[in-house]
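Box 3.1 A note on notation
Throughout this textbook, protein chains are presented in two layers. The first layer is the amino acid sequence; the second is a token string describing backbone geometry. Keep the layers aligned when reading.
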Amino acid sequence: MKVLKFGGTSVGTPQRMKDVSRLITSDGESKLVVLSAMSGTTNTLVEISDYLYKKNPEGANTIINRLEQKYMSHVDELYQTQEWKERTRQFLIEEFDYLRSFTKVHFTSFEEKVVLAQGEIMSTNMVTNYLLECGVNSLLVNALDIVRTDKNAEPDFNYIKEKSNEMFNANKGYEIYIIQGFICRNAYGEIDNLLRGGSDYTACLLGAAIQAEEIQIWTDIDGMHNNDPRIVEHTEPVRQLHFEEAAELAYFGAKILHPTCIQPAKFAGVPVRLLNTMDPSAPGTIINNEFQPGVIKAVAAKDGIACIQIQSSRMLLACGFLRKVFEIFETYKTSIDMVCTSEVGVSVTVDNLSHLDDIIDELKKYGTVNVDRDMVIICVVGDLNSKNVGFETQACQALKDIPVRMISYGGSNHNISFLVNASDKKPTLQALSSTLFKK
């Protein structure tokens, strides 16, 4: 069985819901289909929650009514028969009445998570109803019965595996199983969400749990490109990536995937394929445990970086200096991206700037601190093993006219990273493309 995930754009209109329904039933094979909320819905639910936090039920009701009208207008376009139009209308009436009930209660983060879950609940019900109207043997599965996080807010994989298999054993013979992405329950049974990777994470967790033949992530772009197509002309899709290469690209700015979400598939050995809903015949990108030696795959950029340099004559031969520095970042739950050291100093980069001023104040206890803001990390990904003579030279040679603040190489066999000013992002990406991917 394959697991297919479709994002909000793919189910963003009645016509797209029909297109997705045709796509998942075209070959007659049984599938588990993970759906996001219709595009724009989650943002609207966040807006509703904001009004409720501010104790403005009138503002919340105005937005709820507007969203209800939008959904109701989709019913006539999506369904052909009066029976399924009425069934879906009744479901939506109950859903929006439920949302209005939150205007009469004390609103907390718990209620917000319940509100945010309704987008996926609505989209999956609407698509399932359409499939049933079309005569497709389909089953709507409740993700809240299967996907759970533990006390550390990490997916409880053993629970997910157990409940997934129980569901399939109890409901054999369906052609299409529809389930919500993003939403789950936490260790205390409360409605929650997966945050990182959202519906992609759900698809990979479920695909790993049932040992799927393949996990397909359907978006509105033809796979992962070898550079940012918004900045660099003539980029091309990368047809194959190792899981480690895909994780590096995702972490360093390739927006098509979250770096965490493919980890369950990697450990289970289930390939992940990135496909284009708008062009289903395109081959997309396959991510698996196969490694192509001697190939540079892609370049990605991560914006919003700050570089912190700590210089101290006391650092020379001082045991424990780096530990003290890193403990400050740990205290403020701020991850470090790049690290470079010398005999009298250390430079690190961070992308979470929420506690930057506090971190700088703490670091001043140990040395002189300088900060460069508005920086970008440019990451080159591929077979960058140190035994491959020349690849790192090609990357550095491409940037001979670019002022580079830091270089990180050797921490991974798949990555060399450059820190540059944000103003140099475009010429850096273009220079790397013209040098590394020239025909």
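The mean pLDDT is 92. The chain has 13 helices and 16 strands.
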